[in-house]
Amino acid sequence: MLKKVVKYVLRKVGLDIRKYTPDPIVPLATLFSIYKVDTIFDIGANIGTSVQGFRAIGFYNKIVSFEPIKYLFSQIELKAAKDPNWIIENFALGDTNTEIYINVSGGHAGASSILEMTDNVKQNAPDQEVVRQEKIEVKTLDSIIDKYYPHGNNLFLKIDVQGYEKKVLEGGKHSLSRVVGLKIEMSLIKNYEEETLWIEMYQFLYDLGFRLILIENGWYNSLTHELYQIDGIFFRTNRIIS
Asked: What sign has the CA pseudo-torsion 52, 55, 60, 66?
């Protein structure tokens, strides 16, 4: 009865109450179509899980995966051998062409990073503690983009490098204009020493011309449900604004 009375009163002044239906989340496949993504750089490939996800949503164009850790790279080799549009490279991306040591974590090596791990990771993911170091090669996006993406302005980056994300972007100062979108892991609290936290990363990407489209939940505390990391999906929205 109260609802009917409120509706009646509001209609008298030209207003109406309707059930709110939120807009559906736009699937990544739709975003790829809208922004005409033609190539993906899979930076921090691990064992190629992201590529399998991209294939599952219907992206069959060229994907270039970069994975510096040798035993992970060997696993990707077996999978990529069956996919003619999947290129793999055994080096990392960063802000300079160099050789450096990476801290290889336990478990599935998903927490491996060039940066030092903080206590948050050690305490909340003890199976991911560092077990050894491995010498790896690092190249910049600027130094390799012409080889793997010689033409076009519709490149998409997937960057999951455990705190080293900004270094990857800084290595592409002359080529980022050719990137139309990216999916990037961002930390809400410090998981690696010297990493860029999500607030600063958001502003950094905004200043580069990227706009946030989606946020996907990432690593969180299963007891408290506190989020530690998220994935942000950004695109250059001005590419389709008339």
From this structure: negative
211 within a domain of the structure (yes/no) = yes
For residue 147, the enclosing domain spans 19-239
Nearest to 106, CA basis, from 76, 135, 75, 130: 130
Neighbours of 104 (CB within 10 A): 20
CA pair distance 229, 35, nearest whole angstrom: 26
Q: pLDDT tens digit string along 152-161?
A: 999 999 999 9
Residues 6+ apart with CB under 8 A from 111: 105, 117, 121, 125, 128, 162
Judged against a pLDDT cut of 60, whether residue 10 lies above it is answered with no
DSSP code of 127?
G
Residue with tokens 């305490």: 123
Q: What percent of the chain has pLDDT over 70?
A: 89
**Residue 16 burial by Cβ neighbours in a 10 Å radius (0-12, 13-18, 19+):** exposed
Please state the φ and ψ torsions of residue 163, each to the nearest 5 degrees: 90, -10
What are the φ and ψ backbone dihedral angles of 219, each rounded to 5 degrees? -80, 135
The pTM assigned to this predicted structure is: 0.87
Contact 166, 134 (CB under 8 A): no
CATH code of the domain containing 92: 3.40.50.150
With H, G, I as helix, E, B as strand and everything else as coil, classify residue 129: coil
